[in-house]
Amino acid sequence: MSTPIKVLVVGATGRTGMSVAPFFNTDKGKAVTALTRESSLGKPENQKLKDRGVQVVAADLLGPKERLVDVLTGIDIVISATFWRNLFDQIPLAEAAKEAGVKRFVPCSFMTPSPRGAMRMYDWKDDILAAIQRVYLPWTSIDVGWWSEQVVPSIPSGRTQKYQSPYFEKIPGDGTMPVALTALADIGNYVAKIIVDPRTLNKKVFAYTDVHTYHEVHDLMERLSGEKTARSYVPASEVKQKIDEAEETLSKDPKNDAALMQLFFFQYQNNLGIRGDNTPAKAKIFGYLDFKELYPDVKGETVSELFQKILNGQDKDSLYYLWK
């Protein structure tokens, strides 16, 4: 019997991490460990991981390098799904991973594809990838498009209300731009395929399930529910204005958290509905491999299937919902 691949997940208690870590533990070819801070060991989220058979170990990413090297020794693959405010903590983690002999490092990306200069969040993540490359650590970067859970339309009966994103209820642009979508629950399965594939080593991969315009998403909900959806828009002019406002504020006050959140929010809107960067065709221009071309037989949950579960009243936690 072959030795299982040893995978360590950072940020395993977040929504992306919760899709990844427990999934690997059900895969007989992989043994998964979750890394957490010492102060977080007793938190309920880590206990849930333990209950699902995930080993949880403690180390501080900004603590002694020797401790990180010790934890990482014997690990084949590191996957980071860390919180965005801790993104740059991945740099000492990568340096320790190189010293420990880790064979592949998957930095925290898991967002929409973008070129440099169009999204600050993407630029930060690309800076981290550059730091990984500088120490010659083998890597794979994975983006997953937009979460299908964030395009659930409103209908008069209120059946979709508790499943709707409180932040992205409006359609960016005019609703005609294609958007690549992935259900949160599928990320673990997609990642599991990608990280053991020699074709993806030192490559960027774009994993997604569906591609729909916002209008198509609303049409789909109308067909399934028999109700008319509410369609409201954020025009391109407003998106540009909000981005410019945020950038001007940050140029004077780089630590202004409200301005940073505004910048992130509207740069995502720009990416999705105005520039249209979140598509397989654009991702290829940016240098990504296409998941569907790599694994044509792998199927995920379609937007139609997700919407039907929502209309049937399925429990939100079982759908990996980020918001309560």
Characteristic key phrases:
324 residues; alpha/beta; five-stranded parallel beta sheet; three-stranded parallel beta sheet; 12 helices; 40% helix; globular; NmrA-like; NmrA-type/Isoflavone_red_sf; NAD(P)-bd_dom_sf; NmrA-like domain-containing protein
Report the sheet-strand fraction. 15-25%
* SSE ordering: EHEHEHEHEHEEEEHEEHEHHHEHH
Globular, elongated, flat, extended or rod-shaped: what is the shape?
Answer: globular
C-alpha Rg (nearest Å): 20 Å
Order of strands across the widest beta sheet?
3-2-1-4-5
Level of helix content?
A: 25-40%
Main beta-sheet strand count, sense and barrel state = 5 strands, parallel
Q: Output mean pLDDT.
A: 92
The low-confidence parts are: none
Number of strands: 13
Structural class: alpha/beta
* C-alpha end-to-end distance: 43 Å
- What is the number of helices? 12
Protein name: NmrA-like domain-containing protein
InterPro entries: NAD(P)-bd_dom_sf, NmrA-like, NmrA-type/Isoflavone_red_sf
Domain NmrA-like: 6-250
Pfam families: NmrA
Task: Describe the structure in brief.
The protein has 324 residues and is an alpha/beta fold.
Structural overview:
- Helix 1 (15-25) packs across helix 6 (187-194) and helix 7 crosses helix 12 (303-311).
- A five-stranded parallel sheet has the order 3-2-1-4-5, sandwiched between helices. It has a three-stranded parallel sheet with strand order 6-10-13. The chain has a three-stranded mixed sheet with strand order 7-9-11.
- With 324 residues, it is α/β, with parallel strands linked by helices.
- It contains twelve helices and 13 strands.
- This is NmrA-like domain-containing protein.
- Residues 6-250 form the NmrA-like domain.
